Amino acid sequence: MSLVSILLYSIVTLWLVITLLAQHSRFQSVINRFNGLHIIPRWTFFAPNPGVRDYHLVIRDRCRDGRLTDWKSVPVYPSRPKFAYLWNPQKRASKILTDAIQAIKLLLKRDDVGPSGLPFTVPYLLLLHYAAHAVQPEPDAAEFQIAIIEATGHLERNLECSFLSSFHSRW
Amino acid sequence: MVTEGMADIALCLVITKTLLAAWALLSAAEWFVNLHLFRSDGLLTWNILRLRPRLVIPASIRHRVHAESAVIAVLVCRIVAGLLLLIPYPNHADLPCSLLILLSCFYMSRRTWFGGDGSDQMGMVIAAGLAIISAGLVLDDINVTASGVLAISGQAVLAYFVAGAAKVVSPVWRDGKALPGVMKTRTYGHSLAAGFAADRPGFCKFVCWLTIGTEMLFPLVLLAPPGVAIASLCCFALFHFSNAYFMGLNAFVWPFLATYPAVMLANSAVRGWMGWA
Fold it and tell me: Which of A170, B10, B129, B184 lies 20 to 30 Å (CA to CA) from residue A150?
């Protein structure tokens, strides 16, 4: 057996062992520190908690006279195409929204972040920035606020607001 | 014996690289449709993502490396590499093309941060494994190719087993509520399936346990007689096609099916070691 093949066998075996360890929450924080390129995959698809909600982003403005506008839907992704089993580019935007919202939920539970630290985190700023640019402000809007709406059902939609941001300056 | 082994590996390479090419072309094309996400007002704007910690690229070139034009260049490279992989075997471009796709996977996962899924992870695994197999064929070293086969088959076995194990510890999966729950969403669900599952809790529990059981038993494919192993892999392929149809997980089909030739080679090796061949 050549030196190259011994080296490759060792690297591949190590990769598989670390991948197995990375599936357990106990090792994830350590492994994530060295997994910037996502070389170590996570294979826990739709488990233990499958996504049973759709996420939507909504925005409203507070005008200079203190009046609040109606909530407006922030367009993130169109509905799934009919031939999604072949071609489904929409899934990227919906997955980005889902990932960012999941990250916000985790950050809210962290002692070192929580509601007070959340506005300084990247997932929060990402959604805030996107919503502010995706929906035109009212002419006399001074501030805006975003909310995350969770929904389920196809014909009859059950909606629930799971997060409400603070007000932020429009300008 | 070694020549026969190399012929099997060459066949494995041909099937695997064709499926990897299909995934590379599909994923790059779907990202092209989503280029607006990378613009200054997009969901993946670098204006915000540059604020995250542990960025390795030097600050002086960071903005250029992560600009929309750089994303386009990387995706074009992925498409070219995917097309070159379709050149019939023997193809000297296999090694550089699989490495190029691997690098594009690293770049996209760093650049996007959010939005990646299991198909991207398995695409990366296939590209890495294929690069090693191609290197082994270039060097005419069967042990190098075998380590590439180990990488792909090992990750495939882990992927299915872990997916099943993560479900079996979940009460939502064990009591069958996961299926109607997911089907009721517009993101990953299907209105017809949701309607069918709504009044059939027994059926939902059966499907959830079938998924858990088959995923956890996937490692047995390595021990099964070749005919049974091929039949099992056909069933898993059907599972991925049904996920594509009902859940819109179209990109999962190609990289997961691309692992099957390596799994069959691993089956042959394991059965050989056991003296069952």
Answer: A170
Check: CB of residue B29 under 8 Å from CB of residue B78: no
Which of A43, A122, A153 comes nearest B184 by C-beta? A153
What's the ipTM?
A: 0.94
- Backbone region of residue B275 per phi and psi (left: phi > 0; alpha: psi in -120 to 50; beta: other values): left
- Alpha helices for chain A (secondary structure H): 3-22, 25-33, 90-109, 114-117, 122-134
- Residue B137 in tokens: 């064929």
User: How far is it, in rounded angstroms, from Cα B277 to Cα B275?
Assistant: 6
The token duo for B185 is 């969403």
Q: A144: distance to nearest CA of chain B, Å?
A: 17
Instruction: Say which DSSP state A138 is in.
Output: P
**Residues B119-145: pLDDT tens digits?**
999 999 999 999 999 999 999 999 999
What are the sequence ranges of the domains in chain B?
2-274
Confidence of residue B53 (pLDDT cuts 50, 70, 90): confident
Say how many residues make up chain B.
Answer: 277
CB contact under 8 A, B172 and A85: no
pLDDT tens digits, residue range B162-190? 999 999 999 999 999 999 999 999 999 99
Per-residue pLDDT of B223-273, as tens digits, reads 999 999 999 999 999 999 999 999 999 999 999 999 999 999 999 999 999
CB B203 within 8 A of CB B197: yes
Pairing of strands A54-63, A72-73: antiparallel
Q: Are A20 and B54 in contact (CB < 8 Å)?
A: no
